[in-house]
Predict the 3D structure of the following.
Amino acid sequence: MKRREDRALVTGRGQFTADIPLDGALHVAFVRSDVATGRIARIECDTASALPGVVAVRTAADLPALDGPVVNPVLELSGTPAFEVLARDRISAVGQPVAAVLATSAAAAADAAAHVVIEWEDDVAPTDEVAEPRIAMQGGWREGDVEAVFAEADHVVSVTVRHPRLAACSLEPRSIAVHVDRVSGALTVWLSSQTPHRARADLARIFGLDTDRIRVTAPDIGGAFGMKASLYPEEIFVVWAALQTGRPVRWHATRSEDLVSASHGRGGRLSGRLAVAQDGRFLALSADVEMPLGAWLTTSAAVPTWNAGRILPGPYTIDSVDIAMRGTLGATAPVGIYRGAGRPEAAMLMERLVHEAARVLDREPVDLRAQNLVPPTRMPHQGATGIVLDSGDYPGLVRRFRDFAEYGTLCADRDRRRRDGALVGIGTALFVEPCGRGWESARIEWRSDGSVLLATGSSSQGHGRETAYAQIVADALDIDPDRVIVREGDTELCPNGIGALASRSTAIGGSAVLEAARELRAKRDRAGRDNAPENTIVAETVFQCDHEAWGSGLHLALVSVDPDTGMLSVERLVCVDDIGTVINPMLAEGQLTGGVAQGLGEAILEQVVYDADGQLLTGSLMDYALPRATDMPEIGMASQATPAPFNPLGAKGIGEAGAIGAPAAILNAAFDALSPIGVCELDMPLTAARVWQAIQSAKQGGSA
Ligand code: SMO
């Protein structure tokens, strides 16, 4: 079934937050800090205030103290920085909002913002903050006598991986429009969000309002990727301004505003050691996970660090682990969840260690993995960090991969090209992916005209939920999907819910939809078809799942390197994934493709760069390199399904799989291509300049 959302979207009839008509709305433009640290000496607003169309210029002095997001404490939090809507005294990062102009048009607001002058006093140099990172969260796991195992192991391999800091770059930047009802004072907030109910709860808390006085609507969303799961200072300001003026207020971020102040992803430094027996058994793992957090903490700020640590042992039986994690603050934009949220970091470190172990033991890497996998007979399996792998057939996945990828032939081709002098490599990555737990809601009505109305607490961030949920309902009720109307992303029309994140919207959200549909069917059968046209039948469920569903995948990259320029080409990618029950293969393929594109971006192109003064050097898409269609190779895709046992759909997640598997496969392939000429250190993104430099260092025998 094709995406029913697309007809409107591709004919320009989608309705994004910026498309919402609001008569007489004021537009906001933010004046942002152009230094990373320092004290605000004076803000000169008079010139800006006098410009045509300007209604007000606001600074922190005009604002009450307003709270920010509440950080999900999956790790022990310490030294949580203050949250500020507009900087009051001290600056914490380049791009931090310092003042805001309210004007009758977006252009007038932007013009006036350019006339606000901020005078600074330097007191702390940003480099000092970089030199002494402040720890804001930490945690870890110790299982077994790790040091003794390392001391006695035949081999110990070690690896350090530095992840580039990434920008989510959703097609639609952050966007908010707010309307205050003049009579009731009730607030309507259109917000480009993947978590509308959470946004409502946060706004109610921050402004001391009842939740039923606030309606948050997430209309069409042009991507989110984790970046739109937490409220931002800018958004809180817009709501405050609407409440304060009683007028509609709106703000639609520019691309550059998103690059400088939306939450970034990745950026971690992970190092690990793996103890391996001569016969190939993995004996112990020790790892150190250090993640940047930026200047303030989003709702899920701790999640990437926590995920990276707990998922690290992956699909392998490793009984002894010593894993330490830290999140550190810095004078930059915040770093939060971004497609994968720690899963890519875990897979990368583990799979680099596996490839390194294979090199040292002179073993074939896929073969070495197969020896150490948790067997299906031991599912569910509790790992050393407390994670419970619910299901999966990892050896089966390996067999399917070997067969589908024609792995033996690919390797033979590589060896032949290598003998002819080419720099060519194959890398593989086997990973597991936890896909949400907790609850989600759904309400279904059988209406007198024979249509079925589904309202889901889950939501879409542009990833086709309307289509998938209509299919689930149609299957359960044995009706045509066209008869199913889907409402999502609206706190007034939908039951309380969580939203679209953590690869949960099918496994958890879809299961809630299925349970509600089954209940509806049972009610209808009890009522009998004769009564149905007159009496609307309703079913409402909250589905609760205490176990995560764990997807898995084995991805392969084939790369070649031009020895003269360092240009790395990803020639082929193969993805074999186990996502349990698949609702819509086309949607799954789309999700995987998008994830692979973002994973390839991390591996070879993308990087947010700050200089030593904390200045952002990648403030536009001229400098921040997103993958284009021509950068994407052919992707071979195959699947194997082991249904998830703890949700009624049997579904696992696919939204993040490509972003997890692709970078590790590509980095492993790059090492495979370049280690024969002595390259043993390479950092992402694998730009031509970096690869060329690594080749030159190796030639001079100076590679670290
Ligand atoms: S990184 Mo996600 O949207 O949980």
About this structure: The radius of gyration is 26 Å. The pocket of dioxosulfidomolybdenum(VI) ion is lined by residues 194, 224-226, 229, 337-339, 341, 501-502 (CB under 6 Å). The mean pLDDT is 95. The chain has four domains: 6-123+169-261, 127-166+263-372, 403-409+551-704, 438-545.
